[in-house]
């Protein structure tokens, strides 16, 4: 680190991470070569011999960093639209970086957006309260030494701690190094102090960290990333959450390598309900695959170890095509079938990626984890399906989430030979037939073909509002006059007032909830007639709504 810059950084806000333990003078983070080899052998021993890791020849094409062109920077007038389903508003305008890689987090009163080139805070009525670059000395992480190539950012809201966490990769830094950049808000309002960290990752990834993800549970913060240049090693970094929440150097930190033939694995941003492990999911790289790999990471702050299995799923492969769009031969690059988004809640792992077929389509899964591996019961595929709006239409770069009631939502890009690329959403009630989502809703459409570069996404985000637990907030990309911008859309599935457990149908659980409140005066349902007590008229109202999924 530059000595002059180091003298300006507050004590405790910059840390080096993931350097070799060979020398006693090096920070003790990454495993030495023999330890990494031992871990690799343990993983290899854990893999079923009937389904070996794909050969290196099947390895994925490297996921390329964004490109910066200052001539494309855009500043425009923001739109805010109130609809029956919820509010929508312009997120971030073209920052000069392509693709934008839009991500979002929703707190009690604010929405935080992050893209390549920008981090922004909004109130839930669409009012912008803060925006800054994420790269260079003048940007969000500038005070701790961030250099010019900061990309692939993510932001999450952790309801367990009431904090926002932001993260980005920093590659090709001075001295041919790489870093993981992390920031943690000091409370649930992002407009205040953030504790910022710059963890060196050169020993794990060389000078090119790529496609990072961040996740949290009750005790730990997880960072995962690929090595650049097509490396088939996946790095995992773990920190004690308590230290980061108060702005201290991590009291506990571990790093290790997860050998893989596919680079990226997906992990949930927040592991609700205290699962026995951090669950990750990984695609396969063969031309036709009938399984995904599930990974359970345990003891992350002690002596981390993992268990893996291959779970049978419907056949899939890497997208055989890049999706067409109207008015041009330029097609967005879809790379591979990696899991772009994962969620965990109520004992189930939900995941999505785009896959092959006659058309590239977003596929999703719900997997019952069954308390694995501690329970001794293997995970099971509950349901899966594709988001397929109709002939010739493609869906790609999808994200997924699920609320505490089991209702799920997705956001994704959509295009066709006779459609410009759009941002679209879909949801399903917990009571819907297995393998189905409700009809797709287009939220924003580009006003022409996007031809500036063949990149789109590369991902999006959808979150559950922690305040009501029912509203979904989605963030993705669209283009106006060949310049990208992002859109935020809130939408709440319509629930019957008599649907007291918000699963999409009025049934026995709702009846039991009404009977439990019999004779009381709740503020709202199940006192449907607002006469000051739950009684026979309220029961009749509930029975009148009894029936099928909404």
Number of distinct beta strands: 30
* Gyration radius, in Å: 23 Å
Average per-residue pLDDT, rounded, comes to 88
Indicate the CATH architecture of the largest domain.
Answer: 7 Propeller
Helix share, percent: under 10%
* CATH superfamily placement of the largest domain: YVTN repeat-like/Quinoprotein amine dehydrogenase
Largest sheet: 5 strands, antiparallel
Distance between the termini: 59 Å
Strands ordered across the widest β-sheet: 2-3-30-29-28
Oligomer: single chain
- The number of helices is 6
CATH topology of the largest domain: Methylamine Dehydrogenase, Chain H
Shape: globular
Describe the protein's architecture and organization:
The chain is mainly β and 550 residues long. 8% of the residues lie in helices and 39% in strands. The strands form 8 sheets. The chain has a 5-stranded antiparallel beta sheet with strand order 2-3-30-29-28, with no helix packed on it. Residues 1-60 have low confidence and may be disordered.
């Amino acid at each position: 680190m530059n000595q002059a810059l180091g003298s300006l950084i507050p004590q405790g806000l910059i840390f080096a991470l993931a350097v070799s333990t060979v020398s006693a003078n090096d920070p003790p983070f990454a495993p030495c070569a023999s330890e990494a080899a031992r871990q690799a052998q343990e993983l290899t021993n854990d893999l079923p011999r009937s389904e070996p890791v794909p050969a290196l020849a099947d390895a994925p094409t490297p996921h390329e960093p964004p490109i910066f062109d200052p001539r494309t920077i855009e500043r425009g007038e923001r739109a805010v639209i109130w609809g029956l389903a919820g509010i929508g508003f312009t997120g971030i305008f073209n920052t000069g970086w392509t693709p934008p890689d839009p991500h979002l987090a929703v707190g009690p009163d604010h929405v935080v957006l992050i893209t390549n080139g920008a981090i922004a805070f909004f109130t839930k009525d669409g009012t912008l309260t803060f925006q800054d670059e994420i790269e260079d000395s003048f940007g969000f992480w500038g005070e701790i030494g961030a250099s010019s190539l900061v990309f692939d950012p993510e932001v999450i809201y952790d309801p367990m701690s009431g904090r926002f966490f932001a993260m980005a990769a920093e590659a090709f830094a001075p001295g041919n190094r790489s870093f993981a950049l992390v920031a943690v808000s000091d409370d649930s309002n992002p407009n205040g102090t953030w504790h910022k960290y710059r963890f060196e990752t050169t020993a794990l990834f060389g000078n090119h960290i790529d496609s990072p993800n961040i996740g949290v549970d009750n005790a730990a913060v997880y960072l995962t990333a690929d090595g650049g240049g097509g490396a088939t090693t996946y790095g995992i970094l773990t920190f004690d959450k308590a230290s980061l929440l108060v702005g201290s150097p991590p009291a506990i930190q571990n790093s290790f390598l997860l050998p893989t033939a596919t680079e990226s694995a997906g992990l949930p941003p927040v592991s609700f309900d205290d699962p026995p492990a951090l669950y990750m999911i990984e695609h396969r790289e063969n031309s036709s695959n009938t399984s995904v790999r599930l990974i359970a990471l345990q003891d992350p702050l002690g002596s981390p170890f993992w268990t893996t299995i291959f779970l049978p799923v419907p056949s899939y492969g890497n997208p055989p095509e890049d999706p067409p769009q109207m008015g041009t031969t330029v097609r967005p690059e879809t790379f591979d079938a990696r899991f772009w988004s994962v969620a965990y809640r109520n004992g189930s792992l939900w995941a999505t990626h785009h896959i092959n077929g006659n058309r590239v389509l977003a596929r999703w899964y719900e997997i019952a984890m069954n308390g694995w591996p501690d329970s001794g019961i293997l995970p099971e595929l509950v349901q899966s399906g594709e988001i397929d709006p109709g002939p010739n239409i493609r869906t790609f770069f999808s994200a997924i989430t699920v609320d505490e009631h089991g209702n799920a939502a997705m956001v994704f890009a959509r295009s066709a030979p006779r459609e410009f690329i759009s941002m679209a959403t879909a949801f399903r009630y917990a009571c819907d037939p297995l393998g189905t989502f409700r009809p797709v809703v287009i939220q924003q459409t580009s006003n022409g073909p996007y031809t500036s570069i063949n990149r789109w996404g590369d991902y999006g985000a959808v979150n559950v509002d922690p305040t009501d637990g029912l509203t979904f907030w989605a963030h993705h990309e669209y283009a106006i006059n060949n310049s990208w911008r992002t859109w935020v859309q809130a939408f709440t599935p319509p629930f019957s007032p008599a649907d007291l457990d918000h699963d999409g149908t009025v049934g026995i659980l709702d009846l039991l909830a009404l009977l439990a409140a019999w004779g009381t005066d709740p503020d709202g349902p199940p006192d449907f007639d607002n006469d000051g007590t739950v009684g026979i008229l309220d029961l009749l109202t509930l029975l009148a709504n009894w029936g099928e999924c909404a």
